[in-house]
Amino acid sequence: MTPEKRRSWSAEQKLTILDEARKAGMAVREVCRRHRVSIGQFYAWEKQARQGALEALRASRRGPKRADPTAELTADLTRLREVVAELSAENLALKKGLWR
Fold first, then answer.
1. Residue 42: φ, ψ to 5°
2. For residue 35, what pLDDT is reported?
3. How far apart are alpha carbons 100 and 41 in whole angstroms?
4. What burial class does residue 75 get, using C-beta atoms within 10 Å of its C-beta: 0-12 exposed, 13-18 middle, 19+ buried?
5. What SS3 state is found at 29?
6. Which residue pairs from 87-95 have beta carbons closer than 8 angstroms and sit at least 24 positions apart in sequence?
7. Which of 11, 37, 47, 90 has a C-alpha 20 to 30 A away from that of 55?
8. 53 vs 62: CA distance, rounded Å
9. 43, 14 contact by CB (below 8 A)
């Protein structure tokens, strides 16, 4: 007996199967049989979809959007690089005995 390969389903396929099973008049068992998905797997996908929907709905907050921190971080990085360059130059001058 050869081991059966695990199937993988895309998110779109999972959502299509969930939608199909939830249409009026459709039996979950029949949809699962047709797509060769276990009923336990179907309900696990449904739970994941619900949790994902709740997270997406909770994430939408009102009010002003937070500014992108990239500009501030870039300015900090530039300032720190200048400080490092200045300290390196002073250190080199001290090593050579050229301090003021």
1. -60, -45
2. 92
3. 76
4. exposed
5. helix
6. none
7. 37
8. 18
9. no
Q: Which token pair is 34?
A: 């047709």
Can you tell me the distance from the alpha carbon of 56 to that of 61, in angstroms, rounded to the nearest whole number?
A: 10
Q: Dig out the tokens for 32 from the structure.
A: 């699962």
Measured CA to CA, the distance from residue 22 to residue 8 in angstroms comes to 22
Q: What is the DSSP string of 49-81?
A: HHHHHHHHHHH---SPPPPPTHHHHHHHHHHHH
Amino acid residing at 60: S
- Could you read off the pLDDT tens digit of each residue along the chain, which spans 100 residues? 566 778 888 999 999 999 999 887 888 999 999 999 999 999 999 999 999 988 888 876 676 777 788 988 999 999 999 999 999 998 888 888 865 5
The answer to whether the CB of 18 falls within 8 A of the CB of 45 is: yes
Query: CA-to-CA distance for 38 and 98, rounded, in angstroms?
Result: 79
